[in-house]
Amino acid sequence: MAIEVFNRREIKYLISQEDKDALLSIINDYMISDAYNKNGATYKICNLYLDTPSDELIIKSLEKPDYKEKIRLRSYGTSSLEDTVYLESKKKFNGLVNKRRTPCLLKDAYTYFENGEKPVHSKTNKQVLNEIDYTMNFYSLQPRVFISYDRLAFFEKNNSDFRLTLDCNIQTRRNDLRLDIPAYGNQLLPEGKWLMEAKAFKAFPLWFVRFLSSRKIYSTSFSKYGAEFKIYGERIKK
């Protein structure tokens, strides 16, 4: 989780519990588990997505432009004010994802959102922070949505270019927009469904392509924030 800057393709799939179990039955032949998946258990990721009061960024994103950008604050599990969290910028251009992030303390992130005072951390990447700060100020961004999920993550043996993540229990809310409050909210996916993301700069390995073909699993266009916003939009229309 120490990676701060990288580029890659990200292809998403909505899979069943049976597909997930079939994948896990063979995955140890090709991949190693993320260190945070203790004894094969999931770990929790919590995010605050930032946007304008009129949800300008996510509305633009759903229009599927060639270029789109998201800003979020991420923690691993419920954090205390003194815990390290990550300010992230995620940009996508012509199918290639560029993700940049820098650490800060949660209390400093809250201060940053309230009064614009940039956080200082012993491992701050100043260039990344300045880029995020430019976008924050340009759009006047503030926390809009909390999204959490439980994750299994894997890296291909001897090839860190290919990574797989499987997310379930995706919870969303538009109140209590803090990372020091335990995860709760509306479920985004039906029970038994998993969101799988295959991430690589180069081609996916042959064994994975064969697995997808054998299970008749096809890629889908899916954004957690985008799906949440569509549901939110329907709610406010009623």
Describe the structure.
The protein has helices spanning 17-27, 56-62, 106-115, 126-139, 206-215, 224-237; strands at residues 5-16, 31-33, 43-51, 67-76, 84-93, 96-105, 142-156, 159-173, 186-187, 193-200. It has six helices and ten strands. It has 238 residues and is an alpha+beta fold. Strand 5 (84-93) and strand 6 form a beta hairpin. The N and C termini lie far apart (41 Å). An eight-stranded antiparallel barrel has the order 1-6-5-4-3-7-8-10, surrounded by five helices. The model has no long low-confidence stretch (mean pLDDT 93). The longest helix has 14 residues, at 126-139. It is globular, with a radius of gyration of 18 Å.
Strand percent estimate:
35-45%
Name the helix and strand elements from N-terminus to C-terminus, one letter apiece: EHEEHEEEHHEEEEHH
The spatial strand order of the largest sheet comes to 1-6-5-4-3-7-8-10
* Structural class by helix and strand composition: alpha+beta
* Rg from alpha-carbon coordinates: 18 Å
Query: What is the global morphology?
Result: globular
Percent helix, as a range, is: 25-40%
**Annotation, overall tally of beta strands:** 10
Largest pleated sheet: 8 strands, antiparallel, barrel
Number of helices: 6
Task: Give the N-terminus to C-terminus distance in angstroms.
Answer: 41 Å
Low-confidence stretches: none
Average pLDDT rating = 93
